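pinging the channel bc i need a second pair of eyes. not urgent but kinda urgent?? the chain im working w is below, pasted from the shared doc
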Amino acid sequence: MGTINIRVEEKVKKEASKTFAKMGLDMSSAIKLFLHQSVKENGLPFTPTNNPEQVKARWDSEVKEALKNGKRHASGKSLHRDVLG
């Protein structure tokens, strides 16, 4: 195991901790998740942008694709059977 030390503004650290806690993660687990996903994707696991229109366009595109090609289930039981077999 290795250790990583990073410097980040206290406000960002607090806000990130709150965000991760809502997802059931602590800071260390969230950073490990980010690193593992970066390795898996051989790059950043997201496209950095500060352009809200670009984010919305990407979201809309993903939703359109999911609606067109995604599976639909009539009930939670049907979904459960499909996922768990």
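so Residues 48-85 form one domain. and The chain has two domains: 1-46, 48-85. — does that match what u expected or am i reading it wrong
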